[in-house]
Amino acid sequence: AFSTNILAENSAKIAILDSSETTNTIDPTDLNQSISSPFSMKWASSNIDGAYFEHSSSSFSHQVRIKSSGDYKLTFTLPYTLTNTSSNRRAIMAEVYVNGSALSYGRADSGYIRQASGHSESSLHMALLLDNLSSNDLIEIKVKGNTTELGKVTTDGAPLFLQYMDATKVI
Hints:
mainly beta, single chain, 13 strands
């Protein structure tokens, strides 16, 4: 769980979401899915500034809608654990999608689980600028296995942080 007191300020311009499941209907908790078919993270909890973001945890929970055109900072962290130890060398990849298309620069794929000497955890991290988004653009994070090795990989929580970047501020 995370603190959402930061949204008490009226001009927060942020969205904080958390996920531990995907849109996969067979096993939504397994992040190690087919390398050819990624699944979106489902945001089970969210705390958002409604002037800039729209999200529902009951319908289309894998999408965050942008409500105000402009530039946005995206930060995503995915800690993950191998729960099936029958094979080794697992890697997960996460990608940012805008309106259904993967961004060429929005990928995290450096996490790796060797499954040797007790190594059964890893993580992915990304921080990027989503520039020139338009009102009603849809943001998703999709994950998939990055190797052909099978074995269930789960997360206890993957936070997504989005922030509207005021055009008058120098970054």
